[in-house]
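Reposting from the mailing list since nobody answered there.

I have sequence plus structure tokens for a pair of proteins and want to know whether others read the tokens the same way I do. The first protein:
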Amino acid sequence: MTREEKSQVIKELTTQLADNANIYLTDISGLNAVATSNLRRACFKADIQLAVVKNTLLEKAMEASDREFGDLPSILKGNTSVMYSETGNAPAKVIKAFRKKSEKPLLKGAFIEESVYLGDDQLDMLVDIKSKEELIGEIVGLLQSPAKNVISALKSSGGTIAGILKTLSEKSE
């Protein structure tokens, strides 16, 4: 690979790192062709981009990036694949599901919405991370709950203040 080609790859990696808020670094070495194809298919279905990268080029792209990747460059040893996703927990779910049949991929580290996670032991925690859409849904549900209580209290109490208070106090017990 020529110096110009390396420079171009670094530039493309830097752009990818800037454009994605959720980045997983994994080790997929040792997977045979069928398993690798199945992993790529699972990633495609989950809207995850999977790419094998050269560690030195990825490290230079991280240095050139505006983001602070913490200790992630220190784990760039051996085989490294990068997973890019719009949803923070999607790659973790794919990895966990895939590992029911195989020992790989191993999670080396992740960069999720400005937070750095190192090591395969973080996988379960990353699976449990909620997406922005899930959090918004929960907040809307929590906000709707008190309004529903007031509306049902109004309907069941005959519309009097005393009846509303009595119904609401019964529901809170």
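The second protein, same order (residues first, tokens after):
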Amino acid sequence: MHSPFVYNLVTQCFNDKTIYPEYATLKKHRRALRHDSSMVEMKDYGQGSRVFKGNARKVSAVVKNAGMKKKRQKLLFRLARYFKSENVLELGTSLGLATIALSLSNEFAAINTVDGCPNTLQKAQDYFETFNLHNIQIHQEIFRDFLAANTSEKYDLIFIDGDHNGDRTLEYFNSLLKNTHNNSVIIFDDIYWSKDMTEAWQQIIANKNVTVSIDTFQWGLVFFRKEQTKEHFIIRV
């Protein structure tokens, strides 16, 4: 690996085996969700679910079948911690598995999380309060409207996991370019969800503003470091 930046990221973050105390909170939150038998009427503004047929879904079933896996949740925590991300944007709150990981990575960070479904957001907010997480600001908006109204904010880390449509994902990326700085990272979930998502990912990594891109087979990460030579890496995590 010829990039010291990527080498350090892999060895010090991707492969970090430290058992952080915050992992215990992630585990408690996940366990609480897995035992939550309440029903939530979910309004999906993205591509919909491949598992559920209706909008009324049991919380425990959503976590089991469609929630972020433990390994990825811990990796997201480590990424935000490694980059010391202070201003964070998440597109796609769902039940808050990723949101809590981002929140715990830095108690002084500002986590802005966006979702269009008021019922899902309320459920997530209830758990944020249960676990005394006070650095999370929720926004009940569709992504396009939020991005149109927030054009000047600069984010250190952006996590996109709420719309598996290739054209819209590309639209969000192009809109978010003005919200990035030299050390920002954008993380895209499910880059191989569909043909159009993969095509969008290919266009994103070819963008002239992207210098370093990493394909982890589920997530795609892009960086904008002007001091870096443009390189693309495939790293199994």
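Reply #1 (J.P.):
I read it the same way you do. The chain is about 40% helix and 20% strand.
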